[in-house]
Write a structure and sequence with these properties.
The protein has 316 residues and is of the alpha/beta class. The chain has a single domain, classed as TIM Barrel, CATH 3.20.20.100. The chain contains 13 helices and 8 strands. Strands 1-2-3-4-5-6-7-8 form an 8-stranded parallel β-barrel, surrounded by 4 helices. Strand 3, helix 3 and strand 4 form a beta-alpha-beta unit. The longest helix has 17 residues. The radius of gyration is 19 Å and the shape is globular. The two termini are 29 Å apart.
C-alpha cells in the first residue's frame, strides 16, 4: 500500500485550458496563448505551486496536451499531476480505464500520474476495480474519487481496501454557494480518513471573484455566462461581503473566497489562466480568516438562495 499523498495548500486547475485555441469558444470563453501559459507556469513554479489538476475530458485532450507542453522544461519530480478517468467518455475496449490513462500519459508527456481520479461515480462497482491494476503497475501512485456521494465513496474505499489500497483523496464541487459536501458529511469523512478533500469551483467559475456583477456580466457566448449571469444580482451581496472582508486583509474578493476554502480544511483547485492569478493565490494562502468572518460569509451566502450544482453532479 502506497504512502498518503502530500496535499498542497492550493492546487492549480486547467479546466479552462480545454477551451478551443485562440478563439476561446469553449466553456469558459478563454483565449489562451501557449507563451502566456508558459509564463504562468514559470511564475507558479517560482511561488511554490506545483500541483496541477486536469482531466482527459477538459477539451477532450486539449487541456492535458497544453499542460504537458508547458511542464516539459521542469524535472518530473518537481511537480505533481492529477488527472481523471471519466466513465461517461469511456471507450469500448477491454479496459477503458487503462486506455484513457494511456491517452493521458501520452498527452502529459509522462509515464506516471501522482493522483488518478474516477471523475464521476456512474457505476462504482464497475469502474473502481479497474484502478487496482493501475496502482499495482506503478503508473498511478494514488487514486481518488470525484463527485461521489458518501455512500459511493465508502463503497469505492471498500473495493480498493480488499486489494490492499485505499481511496487517497476526495474531490467535489465546494464553495460558499455550494456547501453540499459539508452538509452530506463528506468533508468530515475525509478528516476521519485522514485524506485530503480537494474543492473545485471554489470561485464558481468567476462569479465569486468580485469581477462580475449585474452591470458587468460574464463573457457572452460562454457556458458559464448562461449558468451564472441570471443569478449575479442575488450573489452581489456575497461578493460585496468578500470585498469588504478583503479590505481588512489587504486582499480582493477572490482571495477571500479561496482563503475560506482553506480555512474549512479543503485544498482549493483554482483555475489559472494568467500569470497575475498566481500572486493572488500567494496572498490567499497566507490569509487567516477569523471565525466571525467565516460565519458572516456563510450567512450572506446562504441568504443568496442559489443552487450552483452542475449538470454533471448528482444530489449528495
Amino acid at each position: 500500500m502506497s504512502d498518503k499523498i502530500s496535499p498542497p495548500a492550493v492546487a492549480l486547475g486547467t479546466w479552462a485550458w480545454g477551451d478551443s485555441g485562440e478563439a476561446g469558444d469553449g466553456y469558459f470563453g478563454s483565449s489562451l496563448a501557449l507563451d502566456g501559459l508558459e509564463e504562468l507556469v514559470a511564475k507558479a513554479y517560482a511561488c511554490g505551486f506545483t500541483f496541477w489538476d486536469t482531466a482527459r475530458v477538459y477539451g477532450m485532450g486539449r487541456a492535458e496536451t497544453r499542460l504537458g507542453q508547458v511542464l516539459m522544461r521542469f524535472p518530473r519530480g518537481d511537480y505533481q499531476l492529477s488527472t481523471k478517468f471519466t466513465p461517461q467518455a469511456a471507450g469500448r475496449g477491454d479496459d477503458p480505464v487503462a486506455e484513457m490513462l494511456e491517452q493521458s500519459l501520452a498527452s502529459l508527456n509522462t509515464d506516471i500520474i501522482d493522483l488518478y481520479w474516477i471523475h464521476n461515480p456512474a457505476d462504482v462497482m464497475q469502474w473502481t476495480p479497474h484502478l487496482i491494476p493501475l496502482l499495482k503497475s506503478g503508473k498511478v501512485k494514488h487514486v481518488g474519487v470525484s463527485n461521489h456521494s458518501l455512500d459511493d465513496l465508502k463503497r469505492a474505499d471498500q473495493i480498493l481496501g480488499e486489494a490492499g489500497f485505499r481511496v487517497g483523496a476526495i474531490q467535489n464541487h465546494y464553495s460558499l454557494l455550494y456547501r453540499n459536501p459539508e452538509h452530506a458529511g463528506i468533508l468530515a469523512h475525509s478528516r476521519t480518513l485522514g485524506i485530503p478533500f480537494f474543492a473545485y469551483m471554489v470561485l464558481e467559475q468567476g462569479a465569486l471573484t468580485g469581477r462580475y456583477g449585474p452591470a458587468n456580466p460574464l463573457p457572452t457566448g460562454s457556458r458559464r455566462a448562461e449558468i451564472y449571469n441570471g443569478m449575479l444580482s442575488r450573489v452581489e451581496a456575497l461578493t460585496n461581503k468578500l470585498t469588504s472582508i478583503g479590505k481588512t486583509h489587504n486582499a480582493v474578493a477572490a482571495e477571500i473566497a479561496v482563503a475560506w476554502a482553506i480555512a474549512k480544511g479543503a485544498v482549493p483547485i483554482i483555475g489559472v489562466t494568467k500569470p497575475q492569478h498566481v500572486g493572488g493565490l500567494v496572498r490567499a494562502r497566507d490569509i487567516a480568516l477569523t471565525g466571525e468572518e467565516i460565519a458572516d460569509l456563510e450567512a450572506v451566502a446562504d441568504a443568496a438562495q442559489v443552487n450552483t450544482r452542475g449538470w454533471w453532479e448528482k444530489e449528495m
